[in-house]
């Protein structure tokens, strides 16, 4: 399949959209965070700055692919844990949506959750089912969702629901370094396609990272994992000392060397110390460097406030490119396509494609 357009819910600064645009697929993102929207606009990405709950498939009639990465804070280990405690309740809401219970009644019950962000994980399913049921809409040809690993049971419930609606579905946990991202990070991913072709998560291309295991060891049919030094232009080797301690003991803080992948990039990456091998303090990671560890283009126009949080919350574009190719039934991305992620381009009057795409949606773009 070749999509017409992707509507990306909770689109953030554009990780999935960057990958899609580089693959030649138009996108429009719905995102409520003003700073993330500033970054998106600076990058020339079509953007609706608003709450996804205020919209639905009929607002984006040209979009034939649904994507989304709902807020993860309540599901993460570092977060409050409200999502994990409410997991059983969320799964019950999935069943209620599938049963097409009264939407207003469901919304009233969602409002009673400990943290309202927990219920946002249900929005992609609402959009998918509305597209199926609405006579004015057409069911999405493909669906792509990603979240922290704790959300996998929700994606599995989604999978069962979507299979009953005629979709081929696969979901599971992907490790970013196994796709050439210079960072260890696990993501729960679901891909679905509405045709008779079997759909599968993308096959890994790189070896998994293991502390103390040589880079050249392991499956020789895969490439070596990518290191921080491979994507950053620092002059000499360095160590990164995590801002997270263990039991308050600074000596127990995690360390990664420049010849290893980065630990998971979080919104607090600027708190990580960077030191030379002799312990000399070095400049901490810039926004451009943090973005490169996420595989954003080195010249990506980060804008607004709390850029670190924007970067930490984003989907790594390189991983997104692999996922999208799998979702569309395409071959894995070529090296040329992957390399295209290293640079972005500014929006100018002489470069109309991004500008044209910014006005294609039938809703106001800001």
Automatic annotation (TrEMBL):
- Molecular function as annotated in GO: DNA (cytosine-5-)-methyltransferase activity; DNA binding
Q: Which residues form a coiled coil?
A: 96-123
Q: What class of enzyme is it?
A: transferase
Chain segments annotated as transmembrane: none
Report the record's Gene Ontology biological process terms: DNA restriction-modification system; methylation; negative regulation of gene expression via chromosomal CpG island methylation
Organism superkingdom: Bacteria
Q: Which family does it belong to?
A: Belongs to the class I-like SAM-binding methyltransferase superfamily. C5-methyltransferase family.
State the protein's name.
DNA (cytosine-5-)-methyltransferase
Q: Which organism is it from?
A: Nonomuraea jabiensis
């Amino acid at each position: 399949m070749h999509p017409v357009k992707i509507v990306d819910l909770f689109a953030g600064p554009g990780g999935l959209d960057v990958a899609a645009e580089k693959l030649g697929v138009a996108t429009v993102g719905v995102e409520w965070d003003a700073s993330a929207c500033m970054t998106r606009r600076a990058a020339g990405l079509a953007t609706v700055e608003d709450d996804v709950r205020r919209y639905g498939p009929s607002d984006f009639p040209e979009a034939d692919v649904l994507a989304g990465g709902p807020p993860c804070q309540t599901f993460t280990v570092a977060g409050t844990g409200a999502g994990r405690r409410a997991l059983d309740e969320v799964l019950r809401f999935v069943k209620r949506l599938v049963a097409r219970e009264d939407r207003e009644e469901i919304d009233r019950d969602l409002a009673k959750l400990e943290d309202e962000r927990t219920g946002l994980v249900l929005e992609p399913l609402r959009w998918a089912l509305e597209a199926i049921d609405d006579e004015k809409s057409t069911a999405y040809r493909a669906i792509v969702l990603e979240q922290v690993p704790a959300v996998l049971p929700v994606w599995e419930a989604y999978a069962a629901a979507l299979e009953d609606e005629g979709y081929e579905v696969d979901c599971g946990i992907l490790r970013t370094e196994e796709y050439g991202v210079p960072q260890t990070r696990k993501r729960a991913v679901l891909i679905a396609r509405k045709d008779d072709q079997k759909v599968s998560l993308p096959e890994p291309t790189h070896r998994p990272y293991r502390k103390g295991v040589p880079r050249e060891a392991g499956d020789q049919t895969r490439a070596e994992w990518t290191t921080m030094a491979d994507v950053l232009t620092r002059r000499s080797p360095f160590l990164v000392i995590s801002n997270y301690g263990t039991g308050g003991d600074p000596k127990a803080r995690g360390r990664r060397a420049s010849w290893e992948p980065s630990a998971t990039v979080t919104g607090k990456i600027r708190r990580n110390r960077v030191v030379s091998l002799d312990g000399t303090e070095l400049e901490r990671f810039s926004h451009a460097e943090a973005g490169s560890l996420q595989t954003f283009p080195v010249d990506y126009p980060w804008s607004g406030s709390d850029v670190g949080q924007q970067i930490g919350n984003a989907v790594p574009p390189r991983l997104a490119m692999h996922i999208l190719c799998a979702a569309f039934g395409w071959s894995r991305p070529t090296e040329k396509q992957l390399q295209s992620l290293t640079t972005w381009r500014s929006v100018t009057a002489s470069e109309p494609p991004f500008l044209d795409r910014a006005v294609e949606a039938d809703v106001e773009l800001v």
